[in-house]
Design brief:
Blueprint (H helix, E strand, L loop, with lengths): L1 E6 L12 E7 L5 E8 L9 E6 L2 E8 L5 E9 L4 E8 L11 E9 L7 E5 L4 E6 L3 E6 L8 E5 L5 E5 L3 E2 L5 E2 L1 E5 L10 E5 L8 E5 L5 E5 L5 E5 L2 E5 L7 E6 L2
Antiparallel strand pairs: 1-8, 2-7, 3-6, 3-8, 4-5, 4-7, 9-22, 10-11, 12-13, 14-15, 16-17, 18-19, 19-22, 20-21
Length: about 250
């Protein structure tokens, strides 16, 4: 992780559009990586606009850095001759000479999860976590169906978003990806766990705690409580309850 506010201090405004700060990181050329770029303007300039690129790929276009911290993500990034390049450059809307492009932090981690689907089964059973728009969230006898396939999206917080392979189909036939979500962002014991469109909030981020038998407890980052299945219902509970251990298997 690289953490420091850096900016390109060059007067010039319009003539410096497209110029900025660039960082190069030497990595294993045979791996794929997740790259997170955080931006927070400590001077709260309302008219600072930047473009962010990872290995030349635009991941933020004309971003206004004012007020809040924003984190931009790129997954499945391959090194270019063993190097990952991250750039923050002046966008064409940022013409005042003092509004130089900035970067607050960069996190690069091996991406072993993108594009990989897993089953999530109750430990000691063949019952797998399932989702379909018709039935919602449940557990069913594992049959290697799309409804029982999940991907893990690594986050800058070290936790994961648990994404269903099957999306929700809207009235206009468009599709909305679904992920595990603690309803209403609750931190209370017994709160229901559902699926909902991904929004980046902490109630959709989970930690996997490996147990001695190889299974995992799945802990909500938001509440510190654990995914629990009980009589057809999913809730978050304190550790030590039944039906809290889950086995993850890669689907090949």
């Amino acid at each position: 992780m690289f953490y420091s506010v850096r900016y390109d201090y060059t007067d010039g405004g319009e003539k410096n559009v497209g110029k900025g700060v660039t960082y190069k990181f030497e990595v294993d050329k045979d791996e794929r990586y997740a790259v997170f770029v955080g931006v927070k303007d400590p001077w709260n300039e309302k008219d600072r606009f930047i473009d962010i690129k990872v290995n030349g790929k635009l991941i933020a276009n004309g971003h206004n850095t004012y007020n809040t911290l924003e984190v931009f993500e790129a997954f499945g990034i391959k090194a270019d001759n063993g190097v990952i390049t991250v750039s923050s450059v002046r966008d064409e809307k940022s013409l005042a000479a003092h509004l130089d492009p900035i970067i607050s932090f960069i996190v690069i981690a091996k991406d072993t999860y993108s594009g990989v689907f897993r089953s999530i089964k109750l430990s000691g059973t063949n019952m797998a976590l399932s989702y379909s728009p018709q039935k919602g969230l449940g557990v069913e006898n594992y049959k290697m169906q799309d409804e029982q396939m999940w991907s893990l999206k690594y986050t800058v917080y070290g936790s994961y978003v648990i994404l269903a392979k099957v999306p929700y189909v809207n009235d206009d036939k468009s599709e909305t990806p679904q992920c595990l979500d603690v309803a209403n962002g609750s931190r209370e014991k017994g709160a229901q766990v559902i699926t909902y469109r991904e929004n980046g909030n902490a109630n959709q981020r989970w930690f996997f705690e490996k147990q001695e038998d190889g299974s995992y407890l799945i802990k909500s980052e938001n509440s510190g409580l654990y995914l629990t299945y009980n009589n057809g219902r999913f809730t978050q509970e304190e550790a030590g309850k039944e039906n809290q251990k889950w086995v993850l298997e890669v689907i090949k």
